[in-house]
Amino acid sequence: MITTDVLVVGAGPVGLTAAIVLTQLGHDVVIVDGQAEGANTSRAAVVHSRTLELLEPYGVTPALVERGVHTPRFTIRDRDRLLVPVPFDGLPTPYPYTLMISQADTEAYLLARLEKLGGEVLRPALVTVIAQDASGVTATLDDGRTVRASYLLGADGMHSVVREQSGIGFGGGTYAESFSLADVRLSGGVPENEVVLYFAPDGLVVVAPLPGGTYRIVATVDEAPQHPDVAFVQRLLDSRGPKAVPAVVEEVVWGSRFRVHHRIADTYRSGRILLAGDAAHVHSPAGGQGMNLGIEDAVMAGETLAKVLDGGSPGLLDAYATARRPVAEKVVGLASRLTALATMSAARRPLRNLVLALAGRLPVVRRRLAWQLSGLGRR
Question: CATH classification of 2-70+94-172+261-342, choosing from 1.10.1040.50, 3.50.50.60, 2.40.400.10, 3.40.50.970?
Answer without folding.
Answer: 3.50.50.60
